[in-house]
Amino acid sequence: MSDLPHCPACDSAFTYDDGLQYVCPECGHEWSREAATDVADEAPQVRDANGNPLADGDTVTVIKDLKVKGSSLVVKVGTRVKNIRLVEGDHDIDCKVDGIGPMKLKSEFVKKA
């Protein structure tokens, strides 16, 4: 199995080394070796509404009333959510809210407790 990085454009595993750069045969994207190491070191960091970095297992507090889609329930301001998990995507916090159940939150609507 090859230890070459996947293509950053199409996530293809069939990249190959072409001198000073990597090439993807599926989409034709070319990138330098330095760019590949920079991308690997640069993990996306999730930050709360105040700019504090969040991590798995943190406790956060909701800063705005949030309506639960498809329900008449509301997550009230000041609700503390324990043991969050960070995920990729638009809603980047996966958690369980007491009285409501499992849901996904956007980090812009919480602050680190």
UniProtKB/TrEMBL annotation:
Cited SUPFAM superfamilies: Prokaryotic SH3-related domain, Zinc beta-ribbon
Superkingdom, taxonomy of origin: Bacteria
Transmembrane segments: none
Domain Protein YjdM N-terminal stretches: 4-32
UniProt xrefs under InterPro entries: YjdM (IPR004624), YjdM_C (IPR013988), YjdM_N (IPR013987)
Signal peptide range in chain numbering: none
Pfam families from the UniProt entry: YjdM, Zn_Ribbon_YjdM
Annotated ranges, domain Protein YjdM C-terminal: 46-113
Sequence similarity: Belongs to the YjdM family.
Protein name (Swiss-Prot/TrEMBL): Zinc ribbon domain-containing protein YjdM
Source organism per UniProt: Halomonas alkalicola
